[in-house]
Design goal:
174 residues; two-stranded antiparallel sheet; 2 strands
Length: 174
Amino acid sequence: TPIREALRLLQADGLVDYRPHQGMIVADISVHEVAKIYLLRSVLEPLAVELAVPSLEEEHLEELERLHEALCDAIHSGRGTAISGSNAEWHSEIYARCGSGDLKDFIRQLWARFPWRTMWVLPGRIERSLEEHGAIMAAIRAGDAKQAADRMRTHILSGEKSLLERMAEQDEES
């Protein structure tokens, strides 16, 4: 029963599909679906950043710094699972301070619909992401909500570009 319920939840999130005579399979994600997710992310996540930055207190900044350093350490050590987890924690910590439970929930739902671990195998994505996180952190440290939001949007769109390029390459190889 718990496994069936978990599969139903995964199906509701669009992560698995039921196919007659095959059972549950991991859902394919289309270029259209990727573009749709990134469009929503590029609007909602910068908004969350812009709302969060003015309310960040010193302990929040310290936690963001700690999470950013944990991501840097994971990247330098090449631990894929740690990279993915640290990245998600860093983003979540920012969004947790936006002051809107609905906005946080929308973002969480978008993140749940996508296999984020795949991003870390894209050529050059880890290094680019780390640079982008550093730029976002600099704007957050400066208390510049608008600039932090703009840099988050750039980060998200950069990730989209990397992923869509890789998907196009795979389609050409097929």
